[in-house]
Amino acid sequence: MPLGLLLVLAVAGGTPELGTRLAERAEALLPGEEDAAAVMDLATGELVLAHHPAILTRAFPPGSVLKLASAYAALDTHRVPEEPLRCSGRAEIGGRERTCWLHSGHGRIELTRALALSCNIYFHALGDVLEGEALLRALRDFGLGRPTGALPGEEGGVLPQALSREDRIRVAAGDSERVQVTPLQLLQMAAVVAGRGQARSRGEGSGRQGPRLGNLAAVEVLREAMRQAAESGTLAATRLGTLEGAGKTGTARWDKGWHTHGWFIGFAPFRAPRFAVVAFAREGRGAHQAAQPGTELLSLALGGDAPESTPWERPPGHLRVRVLEKLGPVRATVMTDGGRLRCDGKTLELTGATAEIDQGLLDLGRPDRRCRELYAPGEGVVVRLGATTRRYRGALRATVLDGQIALFNELSVEDYLRGVVGSELAGKPEALKAQAVVSRTYALAGRNRHERAGYDVCDLTHCQLYRGRQDERPEVDKAVEATRGRVLRGRHAREPLAPAYFHSSCGGTTSTAASVFGASEDSSAVVDRVGTSGPLCAGSPHHRWHFEVSRQELARALGIPAEGPAFEVLREDSGGRALEVRTFGVRLSGEAFHARVGRELGYQTLKSLAVKAREVGGKVRFEGRGLGHGVGLCQYGATELERRGYGYEKILKHYFPERTLGEPPL
Questions:
Q1: Closest C-alpha among 231, 230, 218 to residue 264
Q2: What is the pTM of this model?
Q3: Do 234 and 286 form a contact (C-beta atoms < 8 A)?
Q4: Tens digit of pLDDT for each residue in 64-89?
Q5: What domains sit in the chain, N to C, each tagged with a CATH number?
Q6: Does residue 233 or residue 74 have the better pLDDT?
Q7: What is the Cα–Cα distance from 267 to 192, expressed in whole angstroms?
Q8: Buried (b) or exposed (e) across 282-316, using 16+ Cβ within 10 A?
Q9: 555/567 Cα distance (integer angstroms)
Q10: Does the N-terminal peptide bond of residue 315 adopt cis geometry, omega within 30 degrees of 0?
Q11: How far apart are CA 418 and CA 85, in angstroms?
């Protein structure tokens, strides 16, 4: 029985059967143990659904959902700019360059629309003019930072006592870990906005007073912005608008083990709200991993049925790859190799078209050519986004997600590898064959990485770098064909397929997947040398490196006062990579330290966690070896092994002694 079923509470205006249906649907929509959702009956303050209560009661950074509180603070203290601001995608605010999630920018934009579209630049600028106490007061007025009383064991969360200028700028845009709240607190926030400044709360039964907002005119602005988000903003690609609902999404960065997680809060119907919902997706991007499930739960609570879905029926040996997401496309030209385009299943007499987003749909330039999904069939397609042109094998689908055009390339694994292997390695034949086997294994083992978002893998280094036909080369085609269908299995063929990792250069010693990623699969740490020779990857320009930064700049990047030693390794693995460090008196995991420094100072500054540091004259000098995480295949080492006469099978055995070559599972 799903845990959510154990916490279906009394339903006013509903039935126990509704609670059961919600719990079953939540289990299907958000199956991960670290996903969560809750639905509140606004008439009573009761939880109709509490899916994965252990997560609902934990505190996390809330991301862009905080923009609701920032907007309220600005309205309440009359700090809203008199004229619309201009978002061009980036701006210098508070002495630092800030970026918007929409790289091309939102143009001239005022508060309500900025909230509906979740414009980062607008809210960074708003944070720069807000007083810290006004912003903190708004957070407290919404009930953030203290338990709601809805479920036992709920954490209070984190609210700072004061905010610096940098804190205000980041907190106002939801880009800070200094504020941490529980999903139940965000559900309460949705209920307060839905209730025009107040909401019933289960906590009131024990004498606890729920949040009350005094500026009702400001609350109406928040309500209108959330309605616009559903109709034509960040939630336009969901069904929330058809429910006459309102909502807000958020994506938050989190250094404690997860890189991002997605949020959605909402309520419906808009004029007379009956239910509010919060959804939390562990590795989310807001609207398609949190808002889609949250909207469906809200629809079900209102008496609707689950929508008919048309999932992609993957042919054997194929992948769906999300491409060009990093460019944030809002206008795209798609051309086929001769096949006709299809608009929501209807064949058009077109082999090419330019699509723009309009009211959550793809507009192809004529009233009869507006699609939820554009499909380009065939064995080849060209995509143009401004100055960027990419050619892909296979078919392509396009839809609207998170206010941008989402593009998905559907093709065979072998064709996918023709683009991947060439972008990942510029080596000789045997090293390329080894890379082909590793990349094939990694792709097939990680095929469910983005499953909840409706695709298999992305085209970034998060999965594997893939730029379509741009990186194809004859020698890569030969390597892929020579190893067709071959993957790295465990010691026994019946074991599930596990990822085979790779990196640029290990600096002399690799590490295990368990120590670096916390993975459970069997892997080995390898001394990367043969006989008495030096490290195989000694020819890498990253074999030995250093990086210097002032103590003050490092502390600023980490968000920690520059007090005490700047860097100490507390624990390292057998490969010499830092697992836990202490920096200015604060303990962090090695990955968290690396992520923070990379995000603020550049991801090529600390090239790996095989690093030590010393302080000289107010500067911190980091000295390290290798480039990348250091797990699995060392690409420079593989190339050197080929030079010494190793075939690809022997190269793989050197880096994966516990794995065997075999066929992928069906």
A1: 230
A2: 0.63
A3: yes
A4: 999 999 999 999 999 999 999 999 99
A5: 3-301 (3.40.710.10), 318-412 (no CATH), 487-538+630-662 (no CATH), 545-624 (no CATH)
A6: 74
A7: 10
A8: bbbbbbbbbbbbbbbbbbbbeeeeeeeeeeeeeee
A9: 10
A10: no
A11: 45
